[in-house]
Design goal:
With 431 residues, the protein is mainly α. The protein folds into two domains: 39 residues; 375 residues, no CATH class. It is built from 22 helices and no strands.
């Protein structure tokens, strides 16, 4: 083992263990390898700047801002009301409502924790008040938030598309069917768990079938936004970056002119949150670019390909091994960081086995969904437990049935690649 491998396998984990922010650990490790290989200092600075010199990255803060504006502008409540009226006559309906509300909000925000915060802040107190246990309310909200990284537009898919040099529009299309499939499965699990819990849940029998159409008409501007964004991208009218900016303008106009609930303090809070989250992601991307460049120049991806080639020739087995590794890594590493660090290594590996990088991107995202729910990191668990005001450990136990469901989805996507590839292939043929 040469000195570079020692730095990557020893220094980097030690820095993380000491509690350094992920961007600092990535940057220090990259600088150490650069120094060891006698690279000039300008090599490091150029790579950090080049990491941010990617036009597609502009979409991330814009989609975050659009989701924040919708939340502050009162649009989220209308979305939830539609699903409450659609499923309100079903026992255990609030769990189903939470999942589908998260699914819809995910089509705007592109963020998993952001989806939990937006929908969970409304649904968790409502579920507890209706007789659901705090553990159930928090677990179903945390699970629904995982759809934020699968349903397009998705910030992790944008990052993966940039790193893997894959069409972001194709990735968005590829995530649509698996995302919908996952939402329906999770809603089914939420329903079964609500019924089995034995909670006394009041059903609103006053709901009239035709009232949902009134709600749909009332929320027509909110419902049109995902159609506007995704339809524009898939039809080629605008790029994902242009779509993100259009989403901000659309959400701003609807919140101010139609709903008239967006205040100046609310708008300021939306911008502050978008800047904070977007800025944190940009720092990670910048530092991880140096890290990724170093491991590429040291031919580490090629070494990994050669090592795995000696283990098996089965593409399916390779995917299963990779997913197992990703689940383990995801328990202690932030999502975007894991993608940035591992994608440059894993994409050449899966391509060498004839696996479509678009298909692998969706497998990667499904695995990340599982990581969102697995301690000790489990970002969605932390957000949901704070809203429900219960201990993290209690939510971690209640989340297990949903984790098992996501593992099943991961296996289905692996063994049935057309679930993710059919839609992008169809859309490409229509262009």
């Amino acid at each position: 083992m040469n000195d570079v491998y020692v730095i990557l396998l020893v220094l980097f984990p030690i820095l993380l263990f000491l509690g350094l922010p992920i961007y600092a650990a990535l940057g220090i490790t990259g600088l150490a390898v650069s120094y060891l290989t006698d690279a000039p200092l300008i090599f490091a600075t150029q790579n950090v700047l080049n990491g941010l010199d990617k036009f597609a990255l502009l979409a991330i803060p814009s989609f975050i801002l659009a989701g924040n504006i919708m939340q502050k502008g009162g649009i989220t409540e209308d979305i939830i009301s539609i699903f409450r009226h659609a499923f309100g006559h079903i026992p255990g309906s609030l769990g189903i409502v939470t999942i589908f509300s998260c699914m819809f909000f995910a089509a705007i925000s592109g963020s998993g924790p952001g989806t939990v915060a937006a929908i969970g802040a409304i649904m968790i107190p409502s579920m507890i008040k209706a007789g659901y246990s705090p553990e159930y309310a928090a677990s179903v909200s945390a699970t629904g938030g995982t759809l934020g990284v699968m349903i397009p537009p998705s910030n992790p898919l944008i990052i993966y598309g940039i790193i893997a040099n894959v069409s972001i529009a194709d990735l968005f299309a590829a995530g649509m069917l698996p995302g919908l499939f996952t939402a329906f499965l999770l809603a089914g699990v939420a329903y079964v768990l609500a019924i089995r819990s034995g909670a006394v849940i009041e059903i609103d029998h006053s709901i009239e079938r035709q009232s949902i159409w009134c709600l749909i008409w009332k929320a027509k501007f909110a419902l049109f936004l995902p159609i506007f964004i995704l339809g524009g991208i898939y039809s080629g009218i605008f790029t994902p970056v242009e779509a993100s900016v259009c989403a901000v303008v659309y959400a701003l106009v609807v919140s101010v002119v139609v709903y008239r609930q967006l205040t100046l303090p609310g708008l300021r809070a939306a911008f502050e949150n978008a800047v904070r989250l977007g800025g944190a992601l940009m720092i990670i991307v910048a530092c991880s670019t140096l890290f990724a460049t170093v491991i590429t120049l040291e031919r580490i991806p090629q070494d990994v390909v050669e090592s795995f080639s000696g283990i098996t020739e089965s593409a399916t087995l390779i995917l299963l091994l990779i997913c197992l590794m990703l689940i383990i890594i995801g328990t202690f590493m932030e999502t975007i960081s894991a993608i940035i660090i591992l994608a440059p290594i894993l994409v050449p590996l899966v391509v060498s086995y004839g696996i479509d990088p678009v298909h692998f991107g969706i497998i990667l995202i499904v695995t990340i969904e599982i990581a969102f729910l697995t301690p000790p990191l489990g970002v969605n668990l932390f957000v949901a437990s704070q809203i429900a005001n219960i201990k993290f450990e209690r939510v971690a136990v209640a989340i297990l049935p949903y984790v098992a469901t996501l593992i099943m989805v991961m296996l289905i996507v692996i063994f049935f690649p057309q679930l993710s590839l059919w839609l992008p292939e169809t859309l490409r043929s229509l262009r």
